[in-house]
Structure of LRP1B protein:
Amino acid sequence: KLFFTDYGNAAKVERCDMDGMNRTWIVDSKIEQPTALALDLINKYVYWLDIYLESVEVVDYQGRRRQTITKGRQIRHLCGLAVFENYLYTINSDNLSILRINRYNGTDVQALARLDNAKEIRVYQKRTHAAVRSHACEVDPYGMPGGCSHICLLSSSYKARTCRCRTGFILGSDGRSCK
């Protein structure tokens, strides 16, 4: 799945399949300007910053069990969001510090370091990435991902895929080759 935020005409947090199909709103109320998003892949939670409402909130992948982690003026200056173990990590754009926030109670907030010009933060750790199983976009014997001549996108499951073409090409009637 692909998770993303939008604060155009109607602010929301959404998800869809990697090929863009099955688009679903998971948060569409009491949300104004969601600017950063982080996933807890193990427990299947979505965290986001709303700088207009000055809050950090969380829901499960279906949009249920919504909770506010922390709220207040300090949220207005946050950008970027990452989750690892018991904490959320973000950047305070006002003073360029990396902050660590307890994701269960939101009260334990610590400045860890200062950076010169950061706007995004990521945590890389082997345990945060699920083991990759075989999937529909694996390279075939001819070197084509999922049998697609240009781009292979996973669809509704790891066993399904959709072929797409680069700009300037159209998908052939076979659903795999681009012309």
In short: Residues 132-178 form a domain with the Laminin fold (CATH 2.10.25.10). The CA atoms of residues 31 and 69 lie 14 Å apart. The chain has a mean pLDDT of 88.
